[in-house]
Specification:
The protein is an all-alpha fold and about 250 residues long. The chain is built from 11 helices and no strands. Helix 1 packs antiparallel against helix 3 (about 60-75), helix 5 (about 100-125) runs antiparallel to helix 10 (about 195-220) and helix 6 (about 130-140) packs antiparallel against helix 7. The chain is flat, with a radius of gyration of 28 Å. About 20% of the residues are buried. Residues about 20-55 have low confidence and may be disordered.
């Protein structure tokens, strides 16, 4: 292996190390929890306890540059410059489109907790509590990622914000658009919200069950192709090859 290929491999490995996050324990975990409360120029990946300025390059940008340098070293010359520049741009765009595992896990947990939150909110409203207190009580009872959004909704309502401003915090949650629409419609018309929330919770559970069943059926269909590829060589060797050998023996 040439020295150029070794250098390119080392740079590509450095790019992977920059992108793949490692476990955060001890003080680093506490710093990440405190990051949203601090200034915008602070980065959770700062070292030595010193804040990083806002212009400091992030891990994705550094990984993209490392991949571009690897392409430059591997190709070399003028074409290497072009390949390196293209690699930097493409790697930066592709890596930024990848959803981090923490964000994906949070999104799934929010969608899974939404039916229970709707049921609890309907129960609190039927008990006679106002909407803002009901939302805050449900947020305190639930915990987890959805509770943060519900807490913002309740605090906005408590401070006198409009229903559209408050329930807008649930917009990114999958399936919450119907809950938001029902809450805004109830605030505008005075219609009861508890019954709509119960029906919404039932609909969300039915949608999740349907999606899980469809995913299971899709997995059964997709698994046919690798199974076919596994059985195809055996079928050729055990079924077709003896027939071809027998026919060729009779002909020759």
């Amino acid at each position: 292996m040439s020295g150029r290929a070794v250098a390119a491999g080392c740079l590509a490995g450095a790019a992977l190390l920059l992108v793949v996050p490692g476990p955060v324990t001890g003080p680093g975990r506490r710093l990440r929890r405190l990051a949203p409360r601090m200034g915008h120029g602070w980065r959770s990946g700062s070292t030595g306890g010193r804040p990083r300025p806002g212009w400091w390059p992030d891990a994705i940008r550094l990984a993209s540059v490392a991949a571009g340098v690897a392409a430059l070293v591997l190709v070399g010359g003028g074409p290497g410059l072009v390949a390196g520049a293209l690699t930097v741009v493409l790697a930066d765009r592709l890596l930024r489109r990848v959803e981090p595992p923490a964000v994906r896990d949070r999104r799934r947990r929010e969608a899974a907790e939404l039916p229970l939150a709707a049921d609890l909110l309907a129960a609190a409203l039927r008990a006679g509590a106002p909407v803002d207190r009901s939302v805050l009580a449900v947020a305190e009872a639930l915990g987890g990622p959805l509770a943060d959004r519900l807490g913002r909704v309740g605090r906005t309502l408590e401070l006198g914000g409009t229903a559209a401003e408050a329930w807008h915090h649930l917009g990114p949650v999958a399936g919450a658009d119907r809950l938001v629409a029902a809450a805004i419609r109830s605030a505008d018309s005075g219609a009861a919200l508890a019954g709509a929330l119960v029906r919404l919770a039932d609909d969300l559970r039915a949608d999740r069950s349907t999606a899980a069943e469809a995913a299971a059926r899709r997995a059964g269909v997709l698994i046919v192709l690798p199974l076919g590829l596994c059985f195809l060589p055996a079928f050729i060797l055990a079924g077709l090859v003896p027939v071809i050998v027998a026919v060729l023996g009779d002909v020759l």
